[in-house]
Every structure is written in structure tokens, then in C-alpha cells.
Design goal:
eight-stranded mixed β-sheet, homodimer, globular, Rossmann fold, alpha/beta
Chain lengths: 310, 310
């Protein structure tokens, strides 16, 4: 039996029981749903699932801060679109951007350096930058119930992966510190990298060219590439996660496909279909019909949202 | 201190001491070369490093067996080159193939199925197919000293990865059973895969198009993609591994870059520059000059080669 309460920030009820029972059945030898530790793969979206993605994704805040250096570093580029609009905080232009365009811009403007150098920059920024509404460091704007779930799964020999539409190196820079997930268990959008010798020493260099935009069905294709096993549990919050939830749910035996619904304007934000950068429309309809499909209500199912709440 | 002898199949001497001392320094808190468990990444080539690759790589034997079914399954294709030459065992033609051409052919002829189905086929074949000289199952033709090294590293909280020029799914089919390395720690050559719905259920399907030929500098680029950390230890046996060995060696602090030299015709094979599919020429010259670079002689440094030896 699972001792004490591994999920204190989850309110007692059907959803919490479903999660606890699922893990109990997977880990109990002799249970019809028992799985060996090697099979215990769990995949998590990041933006809006593990941490806050409002009013815009945290890495877009990072991008905007980086672009502020442009007028000094590269005045010619700074005068061109889309940089001009971003520098002038021109919402009319910014609001026309899709998530893929932001990611492409993001990957395109952090190039010519090694992944390690980029990760150093990202870590420095995350060490000091705060969320405009909560006035807390971005890196503390993660969801406490999700961190408890990650820890609970890890303690039961699950291997937790992040499968994010965000930039892989950006998330790798922080995943170990805030989620206890090592870099190699972060799958995300990537630019191409090139092996080259600099001063006779081999390094990898990030190129401006997009390699993989890790969204929708590409998330599943990259799960195949990086993991090679169908997950037992998947957790997302948008239509970009639906393929991954569907793929997980369709495996043999017991699976769990969880969708977080942001319905708590008071403690976090309430949004779904209208969030242009990452809408949740189809997923809210489809997930309840999937085997093991579960909608999680932030408002109802979470006792506590952020770790910094009293 | 490391108790008893974790590497009984390695002969006492300089090479064995170098490996034991390296691990001791990495794992000892307070040592100047101490590394946290999260940093302890070790990467291994597969063909010719972990298991025998002579007279041709094991997956080429698999390919040749699969192609024998062609005259029944696809007579038109069977009459075309290169299949005709392979079916007729026409060495004059076969010997003109490069490794990349074989891998491309290999990936191109195992398509239209899920990675899981393919891995099932590979496992079945490996369960029954024998090496022509040793008359032992191919899957037992692994190098006993290497298996001991993998176990020793794992016991000391290293994470072992295979970084192979061979097909990723072929090696994933067997890596857990014979090396205790899970699928997600196998990086290899890949075809593209596509997410699709079959009978309304989501599956991945292997496509004939090459995605990545994991050789030379691409091995390092894929280490960046899959791991995101510079390894502490790398082990290879050919020029295809040199970039990975160089990249590993060039990291800060203590590193080990090991090259296996096949110089034992009696117990295994003696070859280096003349093995067209995977020559070892430049690596034999460069590795001894790298920091932490070590040439391992099969003949001198290994007490035992295969697990099936008396």
C-alpha cells in the first residue's frame, strides 16, 4: 500500500483517487496491470501543465528580454520586423504571432553558441526574472500538485519525461533544479546543431535553422525517437498535447491520459479556447472519451496551486 | 574503495588500472575530479565495441535473411539491384557497399510497420540466429569485458548510452536483454517515423526515408540532442567514433576516451584499416594524443573475450 499522502496539494475526490489507484495497480506485482519498472514511462507537457504559461509563455518573456539588447548589439536587425514590433512592444503585431513563429524566432535568435552557453544564459535569467502578476521568480511559478505527482511517480520507479513545444535547451536549463528531471529526459523543439572544431577543440554550435517543432503529432514522433516506448501516463493542457494523450491512452493495459483545465482565474488564470498561442478546444471534447482519459480542474481538484502560496 | 574485482575479464595492467582509478576519482566526494551522479554519462559504440562486427555487422546478417523473403513477397523488387546481388550473394557487388549504403538499405527495407513490430521481428531473429564462425547465437557474441565495464559503471551511478551507427530500433530490440541498457539510452541511425491513425488508433509507422545516419560528427550532434551533456567516458573502435572520443576528451576535468583495437585473430578477429565497412585508421593515430585517450588491445588487455568461452 502507498503510505501517508503523497499528493497533499490534490483535493480528496475522484481525480486524486484515480491517480493513486493507477499507480498502485501499476506497481503491485501480481496485479493484472502490473508493469516492470522499465515500462514505467510518464510524459508531461511543460507550459501550462508543469508551470504557468500566462499571460505568455515564460520563454517568450526571456526572448523579449534578450531582444532588448539588439539595438546595441545589432542595430540593423533591431530596425527590422519582427524585432522592431517586439522592441516597441507593439501588441497589434505581436498578437498575430503563432506559437510556431515565436519558437522559430526564439531558436533563430539564440544561435552561434554552444547549448551549454545558451543554458547558462537561460539559467542566469531564470535566477532573477519575475512573473509580472505574482511578483515571484518565474522558476517558482510551477504547479505544486504537479511537482508532487512527479515526485510520487519517481518514487515508484517511473521515469518522468518533459515533452514540450518550448525550446529544448531552455527547459533543460531548469528542469533538474525545479522538477528533478535530468536534461536527457527533456524532449522539446530544437534548432539544428553542428559539430565543429574551435581552436582545435570540438564543440556543438546552435544553428538558426529549425530542426523540430515539437507540437501535436510531432510530440509522439519524438517520443518514438527519444524513448522508444509508449508511455503509461501522459499529462497535458492543450490541443498541442492531444496526439500524445491519445497515443498514450491507446496502449494495451491500464493507461492514464490527463488534461489540466485552467478554470481558476482567482489563483492562476481561466482560459482554454481563446488562448491563441496554445488553445484547448478539441482536447476538452476528446479526452473524456479516451480510455483512461481524465479532465483535471485546477479550481476543484487542486488544494494549492503554487509553492509560494501560504 | 572499490571492493573485490569488478572487471575479472580484464588482465591486470596499466589499462585496467586506468579505468579503475578513473571511476574511483569520479565517484569519491572531495576528489578534485568528483562528479555528481547526474553528470556521469558514458557512451559506447556498439558494432565492434560491445559486440562482434565480423565478418560483417550482425544487422547486415539480419538484412540478408530478411531479403531472402523478397522473391516471394516482392518478386519485382527482388529482380532489381542491389537486392539481386544480395540474394545471389554476389560478393563483387556487395563489397562495393559503404556502411551508409547498407544502413540506408536496411532502413529502407524495414518500413510500413511500427517500431514495436520491427523490434519484435528483430528479437525473434536474434533468438535463433547464429554467428557463422563461433556457432553461437549472435546475441551471445558480445564482449564479456565490456559487459563487466557497463555493469561496473552502472553500479557507480553512471548512465550508459549506446551511440551506434547501426539502426536504432534494431539495437533497442536487444540492448536491455544483453547489456542492461534500456531502449531510451540507445541512440542510433534512424528512418523518419510518421504518426497516423490506423482503425482510429494512433500508431507510429516507419518510413523508408533516412532521418539520421549516426556516424562520425553526427554521433556528437545526436549526443547533444538526446543527452544534452558532454560524456565523461566514451568507448569506440573505429574512425566513426573519433569525433565522439575527441568531444568527450575535450571536456573539463577528468575524462576517458577509449579505443578498442581488434588485434586478436585467434580469439576474435584482427583488423583495422582494411575493414571497409568501418575502418580504424585515423583514430589509432589520434586517440593516444588526446587527454584521457587510451588504446585497448584485445589481445593484451582482455583475459576473456566472449561469455561463452570456457
Amino acid at each position: 500500500m502507498i503510505a501517508s499522502d503523497p499528493l497533499p496539494s490534490w483535493r480528496p475526490g475522484e481525480i486524486k483517487s484515480t491517480i493513486l489507484n493507477f499507480v498502485q495497480q501499476i506497481i503491485t506485482p501480481g496485479s493484472p496491470d502490473y508493469q516492470l519498472p522499465a515500462e514505467r514511462i510518464a510524459v508531461f507537457d511543460n507550459d501550462g501543465t508543469l508551470w504557468c504559461e500566462q499571460p505568455i509563455q515564460i520563454q517568450i518573456f526571456f526572448l523579449l528580454d534578450q531582444i532588448k539588447k539588439l539595438p546595441v548589439e545589432n542595430p540593423v536587425l533591431a530596425a527590422q520586423q519582427p524585432f522592431k514590433a517586439l522592441l516597441e512592444n507593439d501588441r497589434a503585431v505581436i498578437n498575430t504571432f503563432t506559437k510556431k513563429e515565436f519558437i522559430t524566432l526564439f531558436l533563430g535568435t539564440h544561435t552561434g553558441m554552444s547549448p551549454e552557453s545558451f543554458m547558462g544564459n537561460a539559467t542566469d535569467w531564470l535566477d532573477t526574472s519575475k512573473h509580472p502578476r505574482f511578483q515571484q521568480l518565474f522558476k517558482t511559478c510551477l504547479f505544486q500538485p504537479m511537482r508532487e505527482l512527479l515526485d510520487f511517480l519517481k518514487a515508484n520507479e517511473f521515469k518522468n519525461y518533459i515533452v514540450t513545444g518550448g525550446g529544448m535547451d531552455f527547459v533543460r536549463a531548469i528542469a533538474e533544479e525545479i522538477y528533478d528531471i535530468p536534461a536527457e529526459q527533456v524532449i522539446g523543439s530544437t534548432s539544428k546543431v553542428k559539430y565543429q572544431l574551435v581552436d582545435d577543440l570540438p564543440v556543438l554550435t546552435k544553428l538558426p535553422e529549425l530542426n523540430s517543432f515539437n507540437d501535436r503529432e510531432v510530440k509522439v514522433e519524438n517520443i518514438g525517437l527519444h524513448i522508444g516506448r509508449r508511455p503509461l501516463l501522459a499529462f497535458g493542457n492543450s490541443d498541442g498535447d492531444l496526439a500524445m494523450l491519445h497515443y498514450t491512452s491507446a496502449g494495451e493495459g491500464k493507461r492514464l491520459a490527463l488534461l489540466l483545465h485552467h478554470d481558476d482565474a482567482e489563483r492562476e488564470y481561466a482560459y482554454d479556447r481563446d488562448f491563441k498561442l496554445s488553445p484547448c478546444i478539441e482536447a476538452l471534447e476528446v479526452v473524456p472519451q479516451l480510455p483512461g482519459g481524465v479532465i483535471v480542474s485546477m479550481k476543484q481538484d487542486w488544494q494549492k496551486v503554487f509553492p509560494f502560496e501560504g
